[in-house]
């Protein structure tokens, strides 16, 4: 395999690794948002149950939507995160294999040392 081909493949893998890392970071932010939605809806239910907040049908629908939407989003996001993490590890392993397979050349073999 030509060194240029290997270098190109490594560059493509590094680009893929960077994109996957950014996507995984976004998944983390989405997970935090989903957990906040679940918590906010649950707190509203608890406060309405102990009558700190008066019952309001619109708020009830909003709280229900927040909890259910948060659960669905968290589950979907978790699956996506797992898939991207697997792809990231695969790309990193492929990059390591390519780097490990490069035949290194000695540079400066005929360099004189001055005493």
Give short descriptive properties of this protein.
115 residues, mainly alpha, 79% helix, 0% strand, rod-shaped
Explain what this protein looks like in three dimensions.
The protein has one domain (3-100). The protein has helices at residues 3-49, 57-100. Helix 1 runs antiparallel to helix 2 (57-100). By secondary structure, it is mainly α.
List the helices and strands and how they pair.
Blueprint: H1 3-49, H2 57-100
Helix pairs in contact: 1-2
**Radius of gyration over alpha carbons?**
26 Å
Give the number of DSSP strands. Answer: 0
Tell the overall outline.
Answer: rod-shaped
Give the helix tally. 2
Point out poorly predicted stretches: none
Between the first and last Cα atoms, what is the distance in angstroms? 41 Å
Order of helices and strands: HH
> How much β-strand is present in the residues?
under 5%
Provide the number of structural domains: 1
Residue share in helix = over 70%
> Biggest sheet, open or closed, and with what strands and sense?
none
Briefly, what is this?
With 115 residues, the chain is mainly alpha-helical.
